[in-house]
Design goal:
The complex is a heterodimer of chains A (147) and B (53). With 147 residues, chain A is of the alpha+beta class. In chain A, 26% of the residues lie in helices and 35% in strands. Chain A contains three helices and nine strands. In chain A, strands 1, 2, 3, 4, 5, 6, 7, 8 and 9 form a nine-stranded mixed sheet that branches. The radius of gyration of chain A is 15 Å and the shape is globular. The two termini of chain A are 15 Å apart. Chain B has 53 residues and is mainly alpha-helical. Helices cover 25% and strands 6% of the residues of chain B. Classes of the chains: A alpha+beta (147), B mainly alpha (53). Chains A and B meet through strand 1, strand 3, strand 4 and helix 1 of A and strand 1 and helix 1 of B.
Chain lengths: 147, 53
């Protein structure tokens, strides 16, 4: 399991997660959403900030709240809760921008030993999925809970 | 002041995770991260699924 997390509220269907990032830019509500895509059992992981005025979610916001590691770790922890309830599911993770994909890549790399105890992680090269390796730039990631 | 009772129905949840019924359909009025869902579908359609090891 991962440490140093934000408290997270979970919708009863275990597909929507909310937590609050706290930092110099204030309290910012973050939402993680798992949505089943066209292939049964495959879910997209969506992640973004809630606009405090409109209530709409954006995955293009740049928060700079000084807690990116804690936010990433919390996001990763939602994988445990989601896959606990959706056994056998596969999650596809892509960044909304190249920079965010790189951020996800760093987050996985930095916690790879812990993550690989519980999850199989694949990375997308130009045309194929391969087991995740550090120092290779991937365009997307597939994550499956080990049984 | 009213407080909302959060339900913890699973001991295997990460520390600090609580089920909150008020999140039910909270974002059903907006297409959540549709661009990324479209991209995920496109990737899996063009690249295919990973080969079973």
């Amino acid at each position: 399991m991962l440490n140093d997390l934000y408290a997270v509220r979970i919708a009863p269907d275990f597909q929507t997660f909310e937590f609050v990032s706290v930092g110099p830019k204030g309290n910012i509500t973050k939402v993680v959403s798992y949505t089943e895509i066209n292939i049964k059992g495959f879910y997209n992981l969506g992640f973004g900030d809630k606009d405090p005025i409109t209530g709409y979610l954006s995955d293009l916001s740049i928060t700079n709240n000084g807690d990116s590691q804690k936010v990433l770790t919390t996001m990763a922890a939602t994988l445990y809760a989601f896959t606990e309830k959706n056994i056998g599911s596969t999650i596809i993770l892509t960044g909304s921008t190249q920079a965010r994909t790189r951020l996800y890549q760093m987050g996985i790399s930095n916690n790879l030993n812990a993550i690989e105890k519980d999850f199989l992680v694949l990375g997308l090269t130009n045309s194929a999925w391969e087991p995740f390796q550090k120092n290779i730039a991937y365009g997307a990631f597939l994550v499956t809970r080990k049984i | 002041m009213k407080t909302k009772k959060l339900v913890s129905d699973n001991k295997n949840l990460p520390k600090g995770f609580k089920v909150d019924p008020t999140l039910t359909n909270k974002y059903s009025d907006q297409p959540l991260f549709k661009d990324k869902i479209d991209r995920a579908n496109y990737i899996l359609k063009t690249v295919g699924l990973p080969k079973a090891s």
